[in-house]
Amino acid sequence: MADGKIANGKVAVILLDFQNEFAKPGGKLHLDVVDSMTKSGMLEKVPDLVRAAREKGAVIVHSPVIMKTGARFKDADFDPHSYAAMDGLFVEGTWNAQFVDELPRAKNDHILHGRNDFNAFRGSDLLSILRKEGVKTLIMMGFLANICVESTALEALDVIPGLNIIVCSDGCGAKSAEDLDTAMNLTFPTMGVQVMTCAEAQKQVAQKPTQTNAEIRAEHGCMDGRPRILALHGAKANAEVSRLQLENLGITAESHDIVYLSGAVKEEEGDADITAIVHGPYFSWVDKNNPKSIIESVRDILQICYTEGPFDGVYGFSNGAAMAMLVAGIAGDPFLKEAVVKLIETTPKRGKRGSVSVSTVGKRGSATKKTKNRFSVAINHAKEGRSSTVARGSVVGGRRASAFAPAPKLDAGAVEEAPFKFAILACAATSYGDVEKLRTAAGLPTSKSLDLKSISLPSFHLIGIEDERKAQSEEVASYFAFRKVFYLPGGHGVSRDTKSDTQVINVLRDFVKERGNLFPAQTEANFRKISELTSIAVLPNTQVALVKLDQSKIPSSLPGGATIISVLKKWPADRPLFTWLATPIPTSTQPTAI
Length: 594
What we know:
The chain has helices spanning 20-23, 30-40, 42-55, 126-133, 145-159, 177-191, 198-207, 213-219, 239-248, 292-308, 319-328, 334-346, 435-441, 447-450, 470-478, 502-513, 564-570; strands at residues 10-16, 59-63, 110-111, 135-143, 164-173, 194-196, 228-232, 257-262, 265-267, 282-284, 313-317, 357-361, 366-370, 376-380, 388-392, 422-426, 459-464, 483-488, 528-529, 534-538, 545-549. It is of the alpha/beta class. A hairpin with a 4-residue loop joins strand 12 and strand 13. Helix 3 (42-55) runs parallel beside helix 7 (198-207), helix 5 (145-159) packs parallel to helix 6 (177-191) and helix 10 (292-308) packs across helix 11 (319-328).
């Protein structure tokens, strides 16, 4: 029916309510749609289209209605077909709710759960799936054309600007020929939705070449081979500080796509170490007077990943590194996940938009966009004349949304996995002293009680030898199962001298180039017992040694359990800590021996 074609990019097929309740004799709603189904032959045509799309690598999404006994859809008072008010439809565990045999699920298909409305986006992770997969074209079929298909298409146009939507006229059922005709010839064309037959859609899907990874990256605005990195500054700093640090590490806009994100907490003054070099305004991630700001900043970072991604990696300095660690580990942290989801669900879908202005700053003609919204983002594309863009405001001016379209709202599905492939964390630290206190301030259980120290994201850690917060950086590194750790001369910073450290620069370059895939299969730390009290292991690929104390040999006089620090405080200075002499730990405190 339509002259249009499938857009370049990933294709998804969504199948709405292909269940026995509608599609098979004996289903309570079958008599409503049997005439339209018989006329179109949809149960013969739709499976052929799905098979062809699956062979071409399309994303296949099944969206069933599954109801508890006695449960009803929301908005029951506004249901022209009274389905919402009917009990006993699509009841979980019954034949009626089962998928039709003609459309078997394949291993990589997505099945939506939690749907609570005619609109398939409501209560499900459909939006997250489409965004994660980078879908550009959505092919829709199912029941009913003028209810579920129509409301889902309308929502898709609203939340994914620029999405190409196709509805297959002979792949949809309706209660009457009039309902189907109105939807296909009036409603959908008015919405800007293409209408095709299943055969027309199948022909275009079959002719569409399978995309390479390079082609997918090109559609996202990245040149092949250019890693895309999200940069998070430290406390009382800004994006310019991050740019200078990354430049010292050999990561520049010449060979990378870099998005600089600033914290939402506006500071009156910058950090004393940077104000002579970098002008304000200055920002932080955490307001110590508002612990809620910790969860808000995690949400903000996820929002940028959601609207500006995909990202290959994240760079964080100091407080920004601590925030990056929280985001990297969110999939395995049920309490942080719950807190962020709760915040997402209580955040208004759209706020007021500020005006956008453009000015030129920095090298190669960076364009700065300023709005009244929450975020600060710098998108660098400075190769062969590409301009560096600094967008302030929610990322509606980014690659995926027009400058005048509302930024899509983050949904709960975005917290199910880390939004990047690797992390570079420099001088990681928190405003609260350590990660445990940061979590406590945010109202989260400590990681010790959750055994969270196993973030699987590959990580690269830079730690200042003379940094007063070195212990915090080492603690953050310990949270990652796959890590490289380098100690740099100096204190809390990434100085110009780092440019001359060819070992760090070269290893980091390869780490980024390979998207963190430089690690051999991870092996358990090989502890060697050196005394009755202690065992030591040197971690591979790091400059870190682990010391394990046999807690059963430590006297109970040490409150809260023994640590190396607590033992050192009790141990005589003239006796080696790592040689056990089977004598009690003295009760008097003497100078510490390290």
